[in-house]
């Protein structure tokens, strides 16, 4: 059997182990330390725009602490893009609040600004209260229409928490994803564009928010020599070992973005001529995706009935991993009782879509194997 080709793998740059060794040599084997500080510093420099960054144990933890600071609590509602990974929505429920799901638009696959406004107006009408926050997602690295979304955020005075977990290195209108909202989450899970084996970060707009984030992430200890607590805290800080991996990964982040974009171009060149295949595509020059995962749509009306799921099985038979797009949250059993504002767009994308291998570590030979299987499937 030939070697397995995975969807998205960790890709070390080479320096990661030096930073881990430094942590061992200096006995900084704790959830804070020089690697954490340096990793945060390099993220701050990369993202720019005077943002602050706090490294955390997961992207999910970052979303949780952002919602907490936005005052989300029992009985509140939070608007969330439906077409996403469940980690965008789960933390809303940790706080006793309820997600309200908004559908995507067909070009970016992200939150539809028109539906967003409709949802806000209808929630106010139904409940008498405004939703407490808006969570757009930059899916597979493709920026959401942040100009339109931020206008609505300003008009209704509802803060935005960007889910940029998949979009480190993506840009919209010349600004990095993660710099638009009051807060933004990043993820360094093993399959993301850079990894710390597991980890995340919260991008904050003010020094005060960053301090508060560290406070909540370290069990909410009051300023006292003994352990005193006036609030409930969490244990969400990133370990100094994992941050060492992150420090090394920051040295190759731009290479990873370039490589994933090259992979996306390669697939486009090889596959665009096949009838019934289309790609998630930057709609205009305003959009610059990191193309974390190259995602395609298969239209069975144009492929003689061949479907995305049949292609997935054909790839699997050739020892190549591919994956359906995220199943929209409004179709998930666990969120069946949540309000949703949808028109079938994300459901249709889910039914027609497939993510294909996009690891920055893939060789030209690996990529040729993938396109050969896809071409012969459609022939
Ligand atoms: C990966 C991911 C997260 C969560 O990140 P973790 O670090 O795995 O907790 C959140 N949202 C989206 C869209 C993601 O893809």
TrEMBL record:
<feature type="modified residue" description="N6-(pyridoxal phosphate)lysine">
    <location>
        <position position="192"/>
    </location>
</feature>
<dbReference type="Pfam" id="PF01041">
    <property type="entry name" value="DegT_DnrJ_EryC1"/>
</dbReference>
<dbReference type="GO" id="GO:0000271">
    <property type="term" value="P:polysaccharide biosynthetic process"/>
</dbReference>
<comment type="pathway">
    <text>Bacterial outer membrane biogenesis; LPS O-antigen biosynthesis.</text>
</comment>
<dbReference type="GO" id="GO:0030170">
    <property type="term" value="F:pyridoxal phosphate binding"/>
</dbReference>
<dbReference type="InterPro" id="IPR000653">
    <property type="entry name" value="DegT/StrS_aminotransferase"/>
</dbReference>
<feature type="active site" description="Proton acceptor">
    <location>
        <position position="192"/>
    </location>
</feature>
<dbReference type="InterPro" id="IPR015424">
    <property type="entry name" value="PyrdxlP-dep_Trfase"/>
</dbReference>
<dbReference type="GO" id="GO:0102933">
    <property type="term" value="F:GDP-4-dehydro-6-deoxy-D-mannose-4-aminotransferase activity"/>
</dbReference>
<comment type="similarity">
    <text>Belongs to the DegT/DnrJ/EryC1 family.</text>
</comment>
<keyword id="KW-0032">Aminotransferase</keyword>
<dbReference type="InterPro" id="IPR015422">
    <property type="entry name" value="PyrdxlP-dep_Trfase_small"/>
</dbReference>
<keyword id="KW-0808">Transferase</keyword>
<dbReference type="InterPro" id="IPR015421">
    <property type="entry name" value="PyrdxlP-dep_Trfase_major"/>
</dbReference>
<keyword id="KW-0663">Pyridoxal phosphate</keyword>
<protein>
    <recommendedName>
        <fullName>GDP-perosamine synthase</fullName>
        <ecNumber>2.6.1.102</ecNumber>
    </recommendedName>
</protein>
